[in-house]
Design a protein that fits this description.
This protein has 6 helices and 5 strands. α3 packs antiparallel against α4 and α5 crosses α6. By secondary structure, it is an alpha/beta fold. The N and C termini lie far apart (33 Å). A 5-stranded parallel β-sheet has the order 3-2-4-1-5, sandwiched between helices.
């Protein structure tokens, strides 16, 4: 079974993120943002999906694995532990559980990478998602870091 990867695009560019994904032989980018929009050029859902596909990878957005607004606000205020509590409650929802099952299926079959904003995976919910997948699949998790600008 392939390793499960994660990446955040904070402080980077689309070109650098795509290069990191290619270098890691990613087959499938799994966007785990609740709101797949970004002020950073290239990271809104449609353009990101198109760019990933042109680069030879698949793209899937799993909204149910995104952090609720209260959790995103907590991270912005440096309250990572509060985000973890909010996210744990969110993960009890049917949508989150269905999208987690979808992510597990993708990660089982392909070299997948979870994408979110935060550069540091320890302050991002994608680390929690990776842990939930690892608990079911026993995959090794590696956190990619795209070149900064």
């Amino acid at each position: 079974m392939p390793d499960l990867l994660t990446i955040g695009y904070q402080g980077s560019t689309l070109a650098h993120v795509l290069a990191a994904l290619r270098d890691a032989n990613v087959a499938h980018l799994v966007d785990v943002r609740a709101v797949p929009q970004s002020r950073k050029p290239g990271f809104s859902k449609r353009l990101l999906a198109a760019s990933v596909e042109v680069a030879g990878m698949r793209y899937t957005h799993l909204r149910g694995l995104g952090t609720p607004k209260a959790g995103r606000d907590a991270v912005r205020h440096g309250e990572v532990a509060r985000m973890h509590t909010i996210y744990a409650a969110h993960m009890q929802s049917d949508e989150a559980q269905a999208d987690l099952a979808h992510a597990i299926a993708i990660a089982h079959d392909e070299r997948a990478c979870l994408l979110c904003f935060e550069r540091d995976h320890t302050t991002c919910h994608r680390d929690i998602v990776a842990g939930l997948i690892r608990a079911r699949t026993r995959q090794t998790v590696r956190h990619l870091v795209a070149e900064a600008v």
